[in-house]
């Protein structure tokens, strides 16, 4: 199907070329709304509209006032959560246009920044109400809109992120994190979040430009939208990036993130409060991922094991999942890493919490609990015995071997492998117990599984069990 075969779309395509900028913006808005509502499902129609709507909006970036601002916001909605659309936008030279717009809408140096933690008259980004929106200067609104468009343009598209990071605009992004307007701070935080998803070599640009300190400052902001984006950006930056972990710790990030775990505000909606909680726990989880024992201990000294236990039982399933993942990361490493958690929570409470999570109705929580078992089983004989002595845990491990989900199967197989290392003194006893539970038979049945990773680990587990019995 072609666009000219649909009367309404044909009219909108004509209006996208109207000499009046406002009319072009309205037409682009209509097309964008139809696209986001999935009314335009035909691939050819979407392609035709993309090559027309995106250039139209890019040209509107050059219009003055509300039209420019509206074009940025419509563009952000159009490309949001769509890597193909973001790639098409990058191919249409959108990134240079948005970078230029960020610079053109930036305030003068005398009015650009203020303390991010001070109370501001702004209302959180995205809340209803024309009054708070009107109170901000037109230039601030345009600057915010430019950042939101830039954030959306590279949220899922790595080539677009590369273009942004190589454009030199990161200095402006970092500066905007300390802007006097909460809306601009939140938008700059959103942009940082998008860029922080980049490959490790490119994320270095953010670190080199000093993004860590203003991000940590934003963790004490009064605006929920700012808190959500700042914590989300930190989530991405600290993952597999040891220097950033140290920098966040140095700037007091641990205490600020722990404070946000239970954060609340009378001006924030329940959804915003929940988002702050999730991102705070998520950031702490990533902070301890493959971290030094010193960093793990610093996090738990601030958070506390009782609080961690409460997070594993909170009504919010996403928080529960992140809390279990936090435990998973804490017990990954050496015997001392496992000992800290077992001592901090107590052996009985560790087992009870893991069993409850394995039985959780939320699949993500159960998967994380299974990998907590995997990491506990990688510890010394005492840690392995903690797993083996729990009939409930072992029932779930055996059942997981028959799961239709490959990641669940893989976790269960890894648990078996970690419990049966031949070099360990009690390995033979554990192998005999596992055989009595039917584990060996289950593994043999899995030897022809369709997932290559599962099959590879199954063969390793069977070989290891056999080697242990022969010793």
From TrEMBL:
Gene3D superfamilies: Leucine-rich Repeat Variant (1.25.10.10)
Chief place of localization: cytoplasm
Pfam families the record matches: Arm (PF00514)
Transmembrane segments: none
Locations listed in the record: Cytoplasm; Nucleus
Alphabetized SMART domains for the sequence: ARM
Keyword check for Repeat: yes
Keyword Membrane in record: no
GO biological process: proteasome-mediated ubiquitin-dependent protein catabolic process
InterPro entries from the UniProt entry: ARM-like, ARM-type_fold, Armadillo, ARMC8/Vid28
Annotated Low complexity bias: 106-119
Disordered: region residues: 106-125
Protein name as catalogued: Uncharacterized protein
Organism: Allomyces macrogynus (strain ATCC 38327) (Allomyces javanicus var. macrogynus)
């Amino acid at each position: 199907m072609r666009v000219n075969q649909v009367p309404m779309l044909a009219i909108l395509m004509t209006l996208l070329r109207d000499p009046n900028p406002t009319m072009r913006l309205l037409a682009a808005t209509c097309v964008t709304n139809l696209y986001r509502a999935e009314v335009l499902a035909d691939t050819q129609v979407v392609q035709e509209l993309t090559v027309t709507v995106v250039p139209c909006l890019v040209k509107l970036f050059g219009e003055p006032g509300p039209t420019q601002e509206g074009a940025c916001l419509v563009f952000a909605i159009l490309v949001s959560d769509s890597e193909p659309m973001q790639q098409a936008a990058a191919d249409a030279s959108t990134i240079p246009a948005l970078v230029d717009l960020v610079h053109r809408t930036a305030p003068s140096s005398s009015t650009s920044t203020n303390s991010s933690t001070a109370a501001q008259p702004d209302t959180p980004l995205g809340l209803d109400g024309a009054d708070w929106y009107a109170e901000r200067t037109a230039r601030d609104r345009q600057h915010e809109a430019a950042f939101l468009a830039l954030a959306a343009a590279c949220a899922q598209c790595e080539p677009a992120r590369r273009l942004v990071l190589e454009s030199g605009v990161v200095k402006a992004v970092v500066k905007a994190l300390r802007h006097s307007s909460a809306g601009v701070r939140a938008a700059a935080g959103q942009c940082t979040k998008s860029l922080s998803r980049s490959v490790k070599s490119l994320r270095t640009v953010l670190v080199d430009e000093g993004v860590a300190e203003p991000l940590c400052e934003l963790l004490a902001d009064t605006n929920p939208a700012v808190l959500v984006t700042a914590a989300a950006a930190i989530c991405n930056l600290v993952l597999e990036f040891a220097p950033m972990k140290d920098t966040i710790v140095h700037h007091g990030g641990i205490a600020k993130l722990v404070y946000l775990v239970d954060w609340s505000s009378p001006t924030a909606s329940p959804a915003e409060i929940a988002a702050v909680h999730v991102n705070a726990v998520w950031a702490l989880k990533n902070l301890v991922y493959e971290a030094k024992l010193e960093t793990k201990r610093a996090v738990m000294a601030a958070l506390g094991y009782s609080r961690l236990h409460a997070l594993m039982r909170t009504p919010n399933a996403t928080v529960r999942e992140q809390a279990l993942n936090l435990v998973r990361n804490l017990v990954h490493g050496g015997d001392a890493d496992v000992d800290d958690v077992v001592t901090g929570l107590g052996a009985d409470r560790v087992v009870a919490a893991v069993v409850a999570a394995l039985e959780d109705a939320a699949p993500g929580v159960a998967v994380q609990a299974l990998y907590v078992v995997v990491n506990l089983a990688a510890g010394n004989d005492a840690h392995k015995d903690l797993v083996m002595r729990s009939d409930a845990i072992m029932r779930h491990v055996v059942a997981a071997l028959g799961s239709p989900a490959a990641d669940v199967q893989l976790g269960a197989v890894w648990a078996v492998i970690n419990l049966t290392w031949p070099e360990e003194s009690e390995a033979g006893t554990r192998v005999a117990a596992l055989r009595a539970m039917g584990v060996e038979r289950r593994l043999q049945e899995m030897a022809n599984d369709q997932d290559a990773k599962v099959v590879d680990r199954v063969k390793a587990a069977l070989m290891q069990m056999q080697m242990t019995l022969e010793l």
